[in-house]
Amino acid sequence: MNNNQIIEPKTEYRVYRNGDLDLTDLQILTKLYLPMIGANAFALITSLWENDAEKHEHFTLMNGIGIDGGELYQARLKLEGAGLVQTFKSETELVTYLLAKPLNASAFFNNGLLSEILLEMVGESKYLDLAKELLPRNYDFSLTTETTHDFLEVYSVNQTNLTNLPDTIKQVQKIIPDESQPVTSQHDNLDFKLMLNILNNSFVNLDDIKKNHELFVSTNLLYGISEVSMAKLVEQATNLTNNHFDAQKFKLLVSRNNQINFKQTKTEKVQSNPKNNYHFDNEEQQLIQTAKNYAPLIFLSALKKEKNGFPTSSEERVVSQLVEKMVLKTDVINMLIYLLLVDRNNPTLNKNLVETIANDWAQNQIQSAEQALEQIKTRDSKISAEKNKRRQKAKQRTNLNVRETLPDWAKDTSTSNQTSKTSETKHSKESVEEMLKKFNEKK
């Protein structure tokens, strides 16, 4: 890899694996992981599983899949984020890939981030179909009596051996890898104790809630839902008959709630940032505060609504994937959204452009909304200076040439078009500034 995030074709790699993929693993990869990681990453992981333990050049991977070094790097990132590959690099530049088998269906749907990203990718109807198809079925044995014999009833075992295991068995148990592959957040803003205190006096089984801690963290990260709102959704997703929490129903309620009315969703907590030497005016400080107060999907919906538009499903996927990668904090992601939709006045978020800017900011260690805004202002200043230089050079060239007289209709049209574009841009930024004021007043 070089600084442009490209894997060089000549660099060598080696693949290590534990076990082999069976038909069930391939089914899970195809139906659950593929919608999330994309075609290139899916082709890469299947190719890696077919490799032997010998050294190979990355060129063989690129040639087999039909992608270049940059696309290969992006595909590898998605596999790393999904917990399917671990990457190691030696001093000799040899890259080693340790492959992990995909989670089984139950573990996947119980994983907060993975299941929520899948829901965003495929939609509610397809998500329910996949859960029905892949999750173990619950059979009703209420009218029967179980006659199964347990282990000790069938096999004769000395009871002392159960507590004093031979050293050989203990040694093997120590080297067994942990097959659970949690994908957790690096920026956990959820006050889980507060949430448990709120639910303590309700009918909800708290043991179920504690088991799903990761789900609530990821929900707070993606949607910015507060502990109080989260507790209300938990109660709605709890079975009144047995008081057990239904995680799948909770995810569907979260998705529906944020599609119907995003303004009712409360904001995540604002963390105090260390003092810095940046100098921002009141409007810029207001923008920074808004970026800190709102979760990315809520921030995106608000900006699109102020521009009389709506967030597309592809835009929501782009933002969700960016949040999932954990490379940028949520307030920095909001500033990236602001940069593209307001500062550059783009109608939608382009995936390639979002990933390019996110990579650039991550490499430059942009870790706060203040740093992001300073980066935007610096870039805008450079662009403005370059434009002025080009105008001066063009003006000098024009003075040396004979000027041609344009007809009156051409002059009027040109002036009118320029005035119209300036007016549109000004109106767009004024509406967004008004929106930011409304955000903070309501908060």
Describe the structure.
By secondary structure, this protein is mostly helical. The protein is built from 21 helices and four strands. It has a four-stranded mixed β-sheet. A hairpin with a 5-residue loop joins strand 3 (about 85-90) and strand 4 (about 95-100). Helix 2 (about 40-50) crosses helix 4, helix 15 crosses helix 18 and helix 18 (about 330-345) runs parallel beside helix 20. It is flat, with a radius of gyration of 27 Å. Residues about 180-185 and about 260-275 have low confidence and may be disordered.
Number of strands: 4
What is the percent of helical residues?
55-70%
Beta-sheet strand percentage?
A: under 5%
Numbering strands along the chain, what is their spatial order in the largest sheet?
2-1-4-3
Give the termini separation. Answer: 45 Å
Describe the structure concisely for a colleague:
The chain is mainly alpha-helical. The chain has helices at residues 23-37, 39-50, 58-65, 69-81, 105-110, 112-134, 151-154, 159-163, 167-175, 192-199, 206-211, 213-223, 227-236, 247-260, 282-293, 296-306, 313-325, 330-343, 351-363, 369-400, 408-442; strands at 12-17, 56-57, 85-89, 95-99.
